[in-house]
Amino acid sequence: xxxxxxxxxxxxxxxxxxxxxxxxxxxxxxxxxxxxxxxxxxxxxxxxxxxxxxxxxxxxxxxxxxxxxxxxxxxxxxxxxxxxxxxxxxxxxxxxxxxxxxxxxxxxxxxxxxxxxxxxxxxxxxxxxxxxxxxxxxxxxxxxxxxxxxxxxxxxxxxxxxxxxxxxxxxxxxxxxxxxxxxxxxxxxxxxxxxxxxxxxxxxxxxxxxxxxxxxxxxxxxxxxxxxxxxxxxxxxxxxxxxxxxxxxxxxxxxxxxxxxxxxxxxxxxxxxxxxxxxxxxxxxxxxxxxxxxxxxxxxxxxxxxxxxxxxxxxxxxxxxxxxxxxxxxxxxxxxxxxxxxxxxxxxxxxxxxxxxxxxxxxxxxxxxxxxxxxxxxxxxxxxxxxxxxxxxxxxxxxxxxxxxxxxxxxxxxxxxxxxxxxxxxxxxxxxxxxxxxxxxxxxxxxxxxxxxxxxxxxxxxxxxxxxxxxxxxxxxxxxxxxxxxxxxxxxxxxxxxxxxxxxxxxxxxxxxxxxxxxxxxxxxxxxxxxxxxxxxxxxxxxxxxxxxxxxxxxxxxxxxxxxxxxxxxxxxxxxxx
Length: 578
Description:
Number of strands: 22
Strand content: 15-25%
Low-confidence stretches: 1-9, 96-120, 327-350, 470-480
Mean pLDDT: 81
Oligomer: single chain
Radius of gyration: 26 Å
């Protein structure tokens, strides 16, 4: 008996989609097996019909699908055609010739993809510097004018949810906020913060207003500088890039510089710690006093967001690693750094864990206040500080140049990571920032994701779509939103210093800037939240007592290698050798 009628010799048309879906699934499984084999592993054999992994983000010809069946049903895929995908929760094991321990649990964490398999340990600053370079070099160099916006993206987080006042009553961090934040930073390399009010409120927040003013000032400055290049009658006396006198750091620069025939223009500003005056002071000859005020307040607002994100990320990792929870099987549990009086009333296990979480949050807050340079003096732990903030507020103008190869976009600032705790990028009207999302091995544009979030909120609220351009009445003619939509959002990317203080759990984001070869320039205004260079990394102060001779100590080798170093030397150690 034959399976199909001998007269046709072909698979019935009704069954073609089923066989195509099976072929797609089998191809993906074999590709995953090849990736496992390259790392000395293989699938746990649970039968051909068992689920071998959770597949998502299937991309075929520029389209994205949730399942193989969706891709086949749409007519976008047929056997023999290329496609890409992300797979999670792969059940794998190390064969006996490689490791005697058979792994019955999923080898990959739920939030990790195959890309992390075989990831080497980073136990020194030198290894960290090398790893970031390697990750940048592995990122693809192809460019798309349109940009990539995945179907599944991180949760947009409300600014107020990050504040110290949003913590639990016992002082520990809010678990759900911490989870959302860590998932975004670890899995995707960025998080989007919404600093604005709900559209139905009809009013803008103070931060939103300051950011809108910052954008106006930045656009005014670059318009003036570009006009001065072609018109000698326009005065433009800003100094070129130079070191701040008396600081003693080659990284503390300020001034204006143009590169690559004007395709990249940078204004590096620094806030003087005591006077709160921006360098270069000559900027005040170009901008109005109100514009200068918006720049200063925007820096503080952005720095505060960065402080809160650093605090929550550090506290959560401290808590996950139980660095302030100690228990000996022969005595009562205790919490590192707490007195006997503080332990009273915390004899049951749940309360002890709660107290430990509060201790982690407190230590993370101390670390942030003492190490993160937000432009203010460190009041609680006086130290010899530089007269200017080491965290620059950088104004950038990227203009694509017409290419002979006919491409519509180019990479104007290549793949790199930042030596910062976090880099905060207010969302611009012209997108161009791209972050390499290692969970899907693709460049993504967070600014377009923020715009989609705004548009969905507009659609859901029934607000006039013209609100994207500002000046739309809400709740009566007397209440109007005049701020552009993008002033509501800030993209935050983890830097190398955050990777250190989170013990390699949050990796520095690989990112770049792409600009159209013709068309509107991209203006950007990131704050690179760096360290107080004269502060020291005192691991015991922030992470509790640790054992340098214990390779399994929860602090980890990378942090141990930084113990006692001042932050300036740590910063220098992470810079490229050339």
